[in-house]
Specification:
single chain; 225 residues; alpha/beta; Rossmann fold; 9 helices; binds S-adenosylmethionine
């Protein structure tokens, strides 16, 4: 993992602090770490459909053999990194929460030893990569991003072929309840309507290269660069 940084931008700091404390709990949603309570399991079954759907879409699109090197931005506990590595990809995971990266390293120990994965401890906007990647995966990431256009502009320089991204939908009682819950823990959350996404994609000139897929509580966006 590359060197840690001091963050000056307070909102990014709040997200890092939130995920530092939430690492093991978040990872357990995927079901292979900490034990989940009955209530958690109920929530997982009824409210986390989009988590499963976006996972399946990432695996489907990255099965393209032309996508060899993948950047996982906001890789969290490494569930996507592990799946991509199992599929023969060369992976770089980046995250702003050290606790999350430690989980990811644990999960992908074998691949770390083989040099097939490396991890970067940083906010995405704060880290300049010397190399380009074939594709980027940004799942469950834009929820915490105040300026998505800045992220898109950086991705445009660093990624050559494909972007696979999820965006939480605006509206709905559950979304509102989640926002309150996160706000109480000082973590900002951002939601997106379909027209927000269309206008962001148009600003980037990506409107004819992008597909917006409605998946339950998220939009999944695939951009072929
Ligand atoms: C909800 S988790 C998703 C993890 C993983 N992508 C998944 O779907 O399992 C969001 C992750 O994004 C990271 N994150 C949030 N803002 C970030 C930023 N500006 N730069 C890098 N990572 C960030 C958080 O630390 C957290 O680990």
């Amino acid at each position: 993992m590359s060197n840690s940084k001091e963050y000056t931008f307070s909102e990014t700091n709040d997200v890092a602090t939130f995920f530092q404390g939430y690492a093991a709990d978040f990872d357990s949603i995927y079901g292979h770490t900490k034990k989940r309570s009955r209530w958690d399991k109920f929530l997982d079954k009824y409210f986390r459909l989009s988590m499963r759907l976006r996972y399946e879409l990432v695996l489907k699109y990255t099965s393209n053999a032309a996508l060899k090197t993948i950047l996982d931005v906001g890789c969290g506990g490494g569930v996507y990194c592990e799946a991509l590595l199992n599929g023969g990809k060369i992976v770089t995971g980046l995250d702003i929460a050290q606790g999350m990266l430690e989980l990811a390293e644990q999960k992908t120990k074998r691949y770390l030893a083989e040099g097939k994965v490396n991890y970067v401890y940083s906010g995405y906007l704060e880290h300049a990569f010397p190399q380009q990647f074939d594709a980027a995966v940004l799942v469950g990431f834009f929820d915490y991003i105040k300026t998505p256009l800045d992220i898109f502009k950086k991705l445009e320089k660093e990624i050559t072929k494909e972007l696979l991204m999820s965006f939480p939908k605006s509206g709905g009682l559950l979304g509102w309840q989640r926002k309150v819950r996160y706000r109480m823990r000082n973590c900002p959350l951002y939601y997106y309507s379909k027209s927000d996404l269309e206008s962001l994609l148009t600003t980037m000139g990506w409107q004819n290269k992008a597909e917006i897929i409605d998946i339950d509580r998220d939009f999944f966006v695939r951009v072929k660069l």
